[in-house]
Amino acid sequence: MTRTARISLASLTLWLFAGTLIGLFLAYPTSKIIGDIRYPLELTVAVVVAAAVVQDSRCLRATAVTLRLSLWVSALLTLSASAGLLVLSGRSEAASLISDGGGAAQRFLTSATFFALATVCFCLARALVLKRGLDSWSWWLPGILIVLLAFSRNHVLAVGVALTLAICVASWATLPRILIAALASVSLYWVMFIVLPPTIDDLPIGNWYAAQIGGYADRVIEGLNPSVRSADPSARYRTSEIVYLGRAFSDSIFVGHGFGFPYQPPVLSKSGDFWLDRARYYSHNFYWWTAAKTGLLGLTTIAVAFGWPMVRGLRSTSSTVRCGAVALGAALAVSYLAPLPLDTPGTLVVGGLLGLVLGWIPAKTQPITIGLERLPHPTSPSTESVDVDKL
Question: What is the pTM of this model?
Answer without folding.
Answer: 0.89
